[in-house]
Design a protein that fits this description.
Length: 415
């Protein structure tokens, strides 16, 4: 298979090339930035922070690279879902550049001046809104009778745009709690909701394609239940940040909701073919990542139950959020984009040993970061190792698969 030279112009031959490359660059930079910042802090050298360090971290991890990956996927799979022609990648260039440039400004602003960070987030938000408008037009033009999944991605994206705009305002006005609340809404109501929508459509499809004896079961009520739970969780998490402490009865209700949702998601992981998927490595990667959604909800249920029973000091802190963000979102991201990058570069739909190592690094990061939230005494050491594992997975993926995105397809086909 001839690879050919890497050329920047090839990023404009397909939406996944443009979106994934911009996302991979942002992911690698954000992972390296955070690893360096924590390593320097542990060594006694503090970087200057114009924005509180935890807020800067959460904003970068929630908003900088994940939306760009969604762009690459949505404008590659979306037209197929909607029965429309492919979207020309050059038509997406300006909004993608605005998003990438906005986050470059934001990273600088986190250290130099909060208004600069706010301007960067606002610029990225503008680019994201332009892309959502383009997606809305595609949905309106679709001849397909069922546009549920595309509409789900759009609705989640609008929640993300609102959260991003709120974060920019919070940075400009020095409202740290509002910025933290915006991130909680984004993680549960935007990113997790988007990934759940894609999981609902693609995971049964991929499984049935590789393992025909497994039924592609995905009733509409299931997606509605997933999105309602995630959206409500984002709102309650944001309320907890803004109006802590919340009434014990609300924590009890959320504990029951999350326990029920966790049981449904863990059963669903089995129902969708977790065990038989182990025969196909790349498919197993997608299924194992989905298990983290159930585990995050288990941790959320335990946290709310402890607070309802023992008081606010009994919370599990950020353990549920990190299980969701690193475990479900991070591992699903690596598995899904590996599959898309392989398929759309004319390579076999398979994960070799290097792909598996990069993927497992993200799982290690999730386990260690959750453990750091639960074991405060060893939290710093565990967090440092977790960040190193995360950086390995992210930077390794960007270097390997980013090199594919600027080269011709290995099978010689266009795209």
């Amino acid at each position: 298979m001839s690879r050919g030279p890497w050329r920047l112009a090839r990023l404009l031959t397909a939406p996944h090339r443009l979106g994934f490359f911009a996302a991979a660059a942002a992911m690698a930079v954000s992972a390296a930035w955070w690893a360096i910042a924590l390593a320097l802090s542990a060594a006694g050298f503090e970087l200057p922070w114009a924005v509180p360090q935890p807020i800067a971290h959460s904003l970068a991890m929630a908003f900088s690279f994940m939306p760009l990956f969604i762009v690459g996927f949505a404008f590659t799979a979306g037209p197929r879902w909607l029965g429309l022609p492919d979207v020309p990648a050059p038509s997406l260039l300006k909004p993608v550049v605005a998003m990438g440039g906005g986050w470059a400004l934001a990273l600088a602003g986190f250290h130099l001046a909060a208004p600069l960070a706010a301007a960067g987030v606002a610029l990225a938000c503008g680019g994201w809104m332009a892309l959502l408008l383009r997606l809305a037009r595609l949905i309106a033009a679709s001849p397909m009778p069922d546009t549920m999944h595309a509409r789900g991605v759009l609705a989640a994206g609008l929640a993300g745009a609102l959260a991003m705009a709120l974060a920019a305002l919070a940075l400009a006005l020095a409202w740290p709690d509002v910025a933290r609340a915006a991130v909680r809404v984004a993680i549960w109501g935007f990113l997790a909701a988007t990934f759940a929508t894609v999981s609902h459509r693609m995971l049964p499809f991929f499984t049935a394609s590789a393992l025909p004896f497994v039924e592609a079961w995905r009733p509409n009520w299931l997606l509605a239940a997933m999105l309602a739970t995630l959206g409500l969780t984002g709102l309650v998490d944001a309320a907890e940040v803004l109006w802590w402490p919340l009434p014990a009865v609300l924590h009890a209700v959320m504990a029951v909701l999350h326990a029920s949702a966790a049981a449904l998601m863990l059963w669903l992981a089995w129902r969708w073919g977790l065990v038989p998927s182990m025969r196909v490595r790349l498919l197993a990667m997608l299924h194992a990542a989905f298990v983290w959604l159930g585990l995050a909800l288990v941790l959320a249920a335990c946290s709310h139950a402890r607070v309802a029973w023992l008081g606010d000091g009994a919370s599990l802190g950020l353990a549920p959020v990190h299980a969701l963000a690193i475990g479900y979102l991070g591992a699903t991201l690596i598995a899904m984009i590996t599959r898309v990058a392989a398929g759309h570069s004319g390579r076999p739909l398979a994960a070799d040993n290097l792909a598996l190592v990069l993927y497992l690094a993200v799982h290690v990061a999730a386990v260690l970061r959750v453990a750091a939230s639960l074991r405060h005494a060893a939290g710093t050491a565990l967090t440092l190792v977790a960040v190193a594992a995360w950086a390995l997975g992210c930077i390794g993926w960007a270097l390997r698969y980013g090199s594919w995105l600027g080269r011709p397809r290995a099978d010689g086909r266009p795209g």
